[in-house]
Amino acid sequence: MVPSRPWVGYVVAVAAAGACTLAGLAMEPRFDIVNVAMVYLLAVVVVALRFSRGAAIACAALCVAAFDVVFVPPRGTFRVNDAQYLLTFAIMLAVALVISHLMEKGRREAEARAALALEAESERLRSTLLASISHDLRTPLAVLTGASSTLAEQGDRLAASEREALAASICRQARDLSEHMDKVLQMTRLEAGAIRLERDWASLAEIAASVLDRLSDRLSGHRLMLDLPPDLPLVRVDAALVEQAIANLLDNAARHTPPGTVVRLRARHEGSELVVSVEDFGPGLGEAQLEQLFEKFHRGAAEASGRGVGLGLAICRAIVKLHGGRAWAEPNPGGGICFRFSLPAAEPPPPAEREPS
Hints:
The protein is an alpha+beta fold and 357 residues long. The protein is 59% helix and 11% strand.
């Protein structure tokens, strides 16, 4: 790969010619001059493979000049008495041109393939996003339109209970729309690197309590189990983002498992990591499908009829990766799926000593 600073190749070319000259002087008492020429040729090949065509040609020219002046009779001049050395010079230049041409061609082809792959991935994501928006946003919009128009046109003729039901439906659908758009925007910001961590020492139990308070309504139809040992170490994280990661996992479990089933949130201190798990006991998936769950806009067959744009798990993984951890899924021994993520655990700073009053 050509370095981003082209001048580096020319510096290496000068250094390579000088190194080869020193090596040739050391070899000269015991090796034929042809072997010294091979050392220069090797330098030309290496520079041509690693750097630009200009650097390769410069290296070849410098090596030819150094070899001619230092080793080819009459020494100390650019004159050549033996025509065979002219062939050696020509070979060095030809090797530099051929190899640099092939490398440049290979780089262009690799860049073209990468551009095509990026374009194909962008097109796939655009198509997936449009399909997701058309599926997941059209339904709540239709409900909003229907409920609001009913209230506007027939509100005075409806019973109070009917008006309350329509208003609750509008509120619920508006909240879902807001969540969908928030996830799309958050994923965009995470991928663009626009989110900076605001790290501070935090208790995982406190983060979990905040999540459970926020998701109490959504988790009310499930049996929630907590396994958070009291001796868990503090973690230096962006608490708001870690809260979002845990919330996404719990929300995913609530959406895609039958009502009444168990959802368990647990954490363990394992070596230099703190591992957080959200386990459900739903229908589960095959191991080959588990990794796909973290892809953007992906929803399994069992989830396709559920709500959401398929970004919750992708956002969770992006947040964890931003903290230097990892996120993965594995089958639950008792059925269902266990989603896990790790956070680096470090020793918190000692408490500040109080100054004597």
